[in-house]
């Protein structure tokens, strides 16, 4: 079951160039999410949280994902993180899992780190913001690759660190953990 994983590569074709161009250069009319300004205490070092915005992308990108055998997502968007080096510890608002495709990683040393809060379950409530990291225990970290698909478990407290430039990703959101064994990915091995 996916909730046992932090990040799981998925063997899908690369996002077509016309969709990458739309994601990076298209109009950004329908703002879906913007995060709140907050300060994070990391064992006495206080820093400002990076800015995150998400805009809905065209139906054609969603249709392309369905053609690739992906189903059950609620929306497809471009996610932009900038104006900061760290997107502090949190769980996502309405999603449990994101199918993630980094177009711009945000720098060479960017890592996503998952945590478990002491005396708490690994999977947490949605929209949890952690402003003090003193009670967090690191469970896993990795660099999310660029121009490759992967499932990102956002129901576990996680943060993104080491950004030196903007990070832009195409994201398909799932309200709950998808049954990826039911995905009918044509001509591709299901990387389960």
Q: What is the element layout, followed by pairings?
A:
Layout: E1 7-10, H1 17-25, E2 31-34, E3 39-42, E4 45-48, E5 51-56, H2 59-67, E6 75-82, E7 86-90, E8 97-104, E9 111-117, E10 136-142, E11 149-153, E12 158-161, E13 167-174
Antiparallel strand pairs: 1-11, 2-5, 3-4, 5-6, 6-13, 7-12, 8-11, 8-13, 9-10, 9-12
Walk me through what this model shows:
The chain is mainly β and about 190 residues long. It has a single domain (about 1-175), classed as Jelly Rolls, CATH 2.60.120. The chain contains two helices and 13 strands. The chain has helices at about 15-25, 60-65; strands at about 5-10, 30-35, 40, 45-50, 50-55, 75-80, 85-90, 95-105, 110-115, 135-140, 150-155, 160, 165-175. The strands form three sheets. A seven-stranded antiparallel beta sheet has the order 1-11-8-13-6-5-2, covered by helices on one side. Strands 7-12-9-10 form a four-stranded antiparallel beta sheet, with no helix packed on it. A hairpin with a 2-residue loop joins strand 3 and strand 4 (about 45-50). The longest helix has 9 residues, at about 15-25. It is globular.
Structural class comes to: mainly beta
Name of the CATH superfamily: Jelly Rolls
Helix content: under 10%
Largest sheet: 7 strands, antiparallel
Low-confidence stretches: 188-192
End-to-end C-alpha gap: 9 Å
Q: Return the CATH class.
A: Mainly Beta
At CATH's second level, what is the architecture?
Sandwich
Global mean pLDDT: 87
């Amino acid at each position: 079951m996916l909730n046992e994983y932090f990040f799981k590569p998925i063997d899908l074709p690369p996002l077509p160039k016309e969709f990458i161009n739309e994601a990076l250069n298209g109009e950004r009319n329908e703002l879906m999410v913007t995060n709140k300004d907050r300060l994070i205490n990391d064992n006495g070092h206080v820093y400002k949280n990076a800015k995150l915005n998400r805009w809905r992308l065209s139906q054609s990108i969603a249709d392309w994902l369905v053609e690739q055998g992906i189903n059950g997502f609620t929306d497809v968007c471009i996610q932009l993180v900038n104006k900061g080096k760290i997107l502090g510890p949190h769980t996502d608002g309405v999603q449990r899992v994101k199918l993630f495709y980094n177009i711009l990683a945000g720098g060479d040393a960017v890592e996503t780190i998952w945590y478990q809060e002491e005396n708490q379950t690994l999977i947490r409530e949605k929209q949890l913001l952690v402003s003090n990291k003193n009670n967090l225990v690191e469970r896993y970290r990795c660099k999310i690759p660029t121009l490759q698909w992967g499932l990102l478990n956002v129901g576990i407290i996680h943060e993104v660190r080491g950004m030196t430039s903007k990070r832009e990703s195409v994201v398909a959101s799932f309200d709950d953990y998808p049954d990826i064994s039911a995905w009918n990915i044509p001509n591709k091995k299901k990387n389960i």
